[in-house]
Structures are given as C-alpha cells and as structure tokens.
Backbone:
C-alpha cells in the first residue's frame, strides 16, 4: 500500500508541470484577457506601447463600442460573416464528406488512392490552401474560365472581390430578430413538452415564449442600437473562401463517416434487408441514425474551427478586405497592428464565448458519463 | 432470424447494390470529386513552372510550353531560411510536447485518481480555445521573458498549447494497453518509473508516430503565433509565404512555387505515413 501511494504521488508529480502550465497559459491568460477587455489600454495610442502605460478600468465600454459604436461596423459585419461562414462550411463539409464516405463504403477499386486524394488537403496549411485558391478564383482566370471549355463566355463571378450581399437585415433589428427566434424555439419546446405530458415544462417554456414575443412586439421595435440603419448580410465574396475551406476540411468528415460506416456490423444491414427494407429505407432508418453521433461531433469540431478561422481569410482576401473579414482576423489586426489592446481583448473574449458555447457542453457530456466508473 | 431467406432475396452481389447506384455512376462520382480536389494542384504546379511573362489570366489552365524551374530557386531564396526556422521549430516543439504528452497520458490512463477525468477535461479545453483569447497575455509573457522575436518563445507556445492533444492521444492509446500488464509489473515490484520504462515506453512506438506526425503538421502549418511572436529573422514559413503571396507586384509563379515548397514537408509526411496521420485526425475528435 505504501508503494502504491508513492506511485500515485509520482503520477501527480508528473502531471503537475503540465497542469501548472495550462492553468497559467489557458485559464490565467483568459482571465487576464477578460481583465484587459474591461480597461482602456491602447484606446489612447500614446499609452499603448508605453513602458508603464496608464490603464483605466472602463467596465463594459469596449463591448458597448463593438456592438453599437459608430466606428465598429466592421466588427458587426464580421460577426454576421462568421455565422454564415460557419453555417455553410459545416453544411458543405458534412454533405460532401458523407457523400464521399458513402461512395467509398461501396468498395470501389483503388479505394486507398481515392481516400488519399480526398484527404491530402488536410495536411496543408490554411495559408497554402488560401494562396492556391486565391489564384483559382481570380476574377478573369481560374474557375471563371471553366465555361470557356464548353464554349460559353467566361464566368463573371467575382469570387473574392464581390461587395454584394444577400439576406440583408438592419443591425437595429437584431434584438427583435433574436427575441423572435428564441421565442419561436421556446413555443416549439412548449408544444413538445405538452405532447409528452410534462405540464410544468410546457407552462414554463410557454410563459417564457410569451414574455419574449411580447417584448419583441411591443418593446423591441423601439430599441435602437445605432442612430442610423446599418444593413448587414451574407457577403457573396465569402463563397470563395467557403469553397476553399470545404476543399481543405471535407476529407476530415469523410474519414469520420467512413470509420463510422465501417463500424456498422454487416449483420445489421442483413437484418434490415431481411425485414424487407430497400436500400433507401435501410440508409434512412438504420445507417443514418447510427451516424448521428458522428455528425454531432463533426459539427462541434468543424464549428470551433470555423469560428477561429482567420489565416485562410488572411491568405485569400488579405487583412484589409472588410467585406470578408472575420472577428478572429480583426482581433489580430486591432491588437497587433493598431495596438488597441483593450478592444482586441474584447474581441478575443467574444470569440471565446462563442467557442465555449460549442465546446463546453460537449466536453462536459463526454466526460460526465465516464467519471462514474473511473 | 432465419438464415435461408437473405441469400435468395438480396441478389447475387448485395454489396454492389448499396444506395442503388450503378458501378459506372459510382466511378463517375469519384472522378468528379477527384477533379475538385486535384484541379487546384494542377493549377498550382502549372503556374509554378511558367515563366512570369507566360502567366496571364486567359491561359491560366494551359500547361507551360517551356518549363521554368527558376521560380523554385527564387522562392527558396525568399523563404528558404524560413523553412529552416519552421523545421527547427517543428522538430523541437514536437519532441518536447510528445514526451510530456506521453508521461501525462501514462499517468492519466494507468494511475487514475479521483477527479482525473475532470482534470483531463479541463486540460482538453486548451485544445479548443481560440488563441485570440490568450494572445495578448501570451505576447506580454513571452516579451517579459525576453523571448519575443526568438524562435524559443514560439517553441514555448507550441509546446504548451500542444499538450492537450498529445496528452489526449497518448491517454487513449495507453487505455488500450491491458491493466493486467501494469498489475503484473507492480507485483514484480516495479514502481511508476520502471513500469513506464520497461512496459509502457517500449509499447508506445506507434503512439509516438501518430503524435509526432500530427503535432509536426500542426506546428508547421500554424500561422497566428508565427505572425505574433516572431520578427523577420525567426519567422516560420507560413508567415513568409503569406508575405510573399500578399505582395501585389510579384507575378504568380513565385507564390505558387513558394506554396509548393511550404507544403512539401507535410505533404510528404502525409503520403508516406498517411495511416498514422488519419489516426491522429480521428483522435482529435475526442472519443473520451
């Protein structure tokens, strides 16, 4: 028993340096960033790089500036860009990855070679991918030359330089939109709870929905974040970046799905056939439900990658194209080009909150189940 | 379940009828998909081999009439030093974080203590955070150590933020080593370190291969730390390439050749050792 406890001490001693390092570099630095974001460090350029800068506590002023300040329209467009980018990037990777996995699962000849082709972009840096695709998507060359090959006039699409956007909405309407969407979701939850016979839950979510929707109807329209309307939407130049990102990352979802498909026992497929399921029915009722957990974990990994992405944007449209920029890029520029550290820290904190929404539930559910029988 | 029915109803080759596609349609799909993945590479190589005056937007897709290898020499002249920086950085950072990760994984998988999983989840969070959320303090910290602008500051950052993934891969790898082996060694009187040296480490070679390949690729490809913590003399290749490709005056053969050079090491690793690369990739998706 004595030896055993000494071994346990060793195992803790081995872990200790890493624990300390991560405590400082992850949690300590996050705390420091949050603190910096609540100060005015760098808002006065003269103080930014001073040896002993005068730093004042300003509370949430930097956040207020980002969401409602006249000069920070770029940041608000970037938030919208990030949401659209994440949505289409995940959809693209899941769709293409699942398609490729289903095809490869049918054991075509030379499977290893196909797999190598679909996965190799994963080994490249986003900077390399961005450099290649920037050339692919040149306005008069690259992809726009494809129609020439079949005798049509060259394409006109400005993949990376478009300044048009679709699905525009006024930033002032954001509280209204958010409240309505959340309210509708709550109504849905209430209806489902009522059907399942859970009365308390139905009443609570119904009341919350009514409150939110009432707010959206009567108070929301009068809330104005900005003095003037400020339209934001899905910028078309993002399409080029999304294609490049899907090119790089869809091999990852393919590998995940292929591993999942290979893990489904042949007996299960046989059993479905015995029960008279046709191919479509088998995929619909047997195989896709089994792939659902893989889809969820792929969505989480891809989601956090896409919220953090900035090197691809940097390489494809440069740091100064505000139409395609993302918060992660803005944070770098604000902090290390303009030396506005407090504002940069606020953007970093907002990014962290976005990522934490995705990651924390995932990590806690992954490890809660295990702790019981550890 | 009967055993006679399926053979008569499922037809002669059930595997080939999955998803109701003909064999020809299957290969057509594969070829189209492969074109999507390979055409950018064709364009990359074709452009890198053109002489600057042969590059114009109308003839983007033509294979060069005369091969011009000089772009590679030019590109090497501009980013060769940065490639060597990256090599040093990636090798040192990979070895250090692999060694630490192996010890951590061993302690977490074979000497479980109360709260080990919570601790592990807290460690893993470091893998997912956007580095923008720690960048300013990290920059200050590296600067206060006097390491700003040197490659060692970058190595420090990569070792620390590499710990979560290397620990994760090793922990999952060691979880598959039977506990009976460790128990037998304990009965023979071996302690923490002897078991690591004589039982665990010799079994770890495939684990090390996965971790080293994965971590090398990640460090080589990283951009944010590279752009923030270094200056001209110590910049890794990703940053140098972004500068090379960002300039408007250079003609396209140069950044394309540079991109090929910067991509070669990780691409070679992938082509030669793809199996282990994929294993690292799948391990990154956290299966507890």
Residues:
């Amino acid at each position: 028993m004595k030896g055993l406890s000494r071994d346990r001490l060793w195992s803790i001693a081995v872990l200790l340096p890493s624990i300390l390092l991560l405590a400082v570099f992850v949690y300590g630095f996050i705390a420091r960033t949050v603190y910096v974001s609540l100060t005015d460090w760098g808002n006065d350029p003269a103080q930014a790089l001073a040896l002993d800068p005068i730093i004042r506590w300003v509370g949430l002023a930097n956040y207020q500036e980002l969401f409602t300040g006249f000069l920070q329209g770029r940041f608000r467009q970037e938030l919208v860009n990030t949401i659209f980018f994440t949505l289409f990037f995940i959809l693209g990777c899941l769709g293409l990855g699942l398609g490729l996995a289903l095809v490869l699962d049918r054991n075509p000849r030379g499977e290893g070679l196909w797999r190598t082709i679909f996965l190799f972009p994963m080994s490249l840096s986003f900077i390399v991918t961005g450099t290649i695709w920037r050339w692919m998507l040149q306005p008069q060359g690259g992809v726009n030359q494809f129609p020439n090959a079949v005798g049509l006039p060259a394409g006109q699409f400005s993949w990376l330089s478009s300044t048009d956007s679709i699905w525009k909405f006024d930033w002032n309407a954001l509280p209204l939109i958010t409240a309505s969407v959340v309210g509708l979701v709550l109504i849905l939850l209430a209806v489902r709870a009522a059907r399942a016979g859970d009365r308390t839950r139905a009443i609570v979510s119904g009341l919350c929905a009514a409150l939110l929707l009432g707010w959206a109807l009567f108070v929301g329209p009068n809330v104005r974040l900005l003095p003037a309307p400020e339209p934001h939407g899905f910028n078309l130049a993002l399409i080029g970046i999304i294609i490049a990102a899907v090119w790089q990352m869809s091999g990852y979802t393919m590998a995940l799905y292929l591993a999942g498909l290979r893990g489904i026992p042949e007996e299960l497929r046989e059993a479905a056939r015995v029960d008279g399921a046709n191919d479509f029915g088998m995929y619909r009722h047997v195989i896709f439900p089994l792939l659902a957990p893989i889809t969820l974990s792929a969505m989480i990994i891809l989601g956090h990658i896409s919220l953090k992405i900035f090197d691809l944007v940097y390489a494809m449209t440069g740091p100064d194209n505000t139409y395609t920029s993302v918060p992660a890029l803005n944070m770098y520029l604000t902090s290390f080009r303009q030396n506005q550290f407090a504002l940069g820290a606020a953007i970093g904190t907002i990014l962290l909150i976005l990522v934490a929404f995705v990651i924390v539930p995932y990590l806690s559910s992954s490890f809660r189940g295990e702790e019981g029988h550890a | 379940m009967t055993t006679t029915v399926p053979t008569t109803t499922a037809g002669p080759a059930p595997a080939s009828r999955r998803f109701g596609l003909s064999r020809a349609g299957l290969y057509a799909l594969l070829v189209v998909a492969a074109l999507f993945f390979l055409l950018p590479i064709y364009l990359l190589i074709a452009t890198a081999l053109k002489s600057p005056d042969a590059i114009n937007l109308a003839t983007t897709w033509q294979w060069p009439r005369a091969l011009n290898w000089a772009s590679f020499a030019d590109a090497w002249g501009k980013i060769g030093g940065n490639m060597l920086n990256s090599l040093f950085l990636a090798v040192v950072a990979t070895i250090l974080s692999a060694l630490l990760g192996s010890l951590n994984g061993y302690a977490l998988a074979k000497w479980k203590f109360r709260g080990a999983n919570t601790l592990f989840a807290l460690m893993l969070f470091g893998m997912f955070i956007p580095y923008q959320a720690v960048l300013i303090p990290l920059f200050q910290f590296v600067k206060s150590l006097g390491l700003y602008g040197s490659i060692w500051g970058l190595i420090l950052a990569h070792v620390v933020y590499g710990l979560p993934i290397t620990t994760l891969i090793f922990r999952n790898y060691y979880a598959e080593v039977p506990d009976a082996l460790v128990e037998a060694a304990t009965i023979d009187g071996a302690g923490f370190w002897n078991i690591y040296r004589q039982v665990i480490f010799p079994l770890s070679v495939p684990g090390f291969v996965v971790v080293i390949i994965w971590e090398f690729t990640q460090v080589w490809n990283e951009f944010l730390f590279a752009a923030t913590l270094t200056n001209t003399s110590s910049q890794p290749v990703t940053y140098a390439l972004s500068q090379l490709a960002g300039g408007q005056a250079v003609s396209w053969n140069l950044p394309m050749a540079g991109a090929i050079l910067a991509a070669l090491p990780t691409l070679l690793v992938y082509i030669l050792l793809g199996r282990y690369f994929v294993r690292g990739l799948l391990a990154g998706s956290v299966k507890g």
DSSP finds 15 helices and two strands in chain A. Residues 170 and 229 of chain A are 6 Å apart (CA to CA). Residues 2-37 of chain A form the longest helix (36 residues). Chain A has a mean pLDDT of 87.
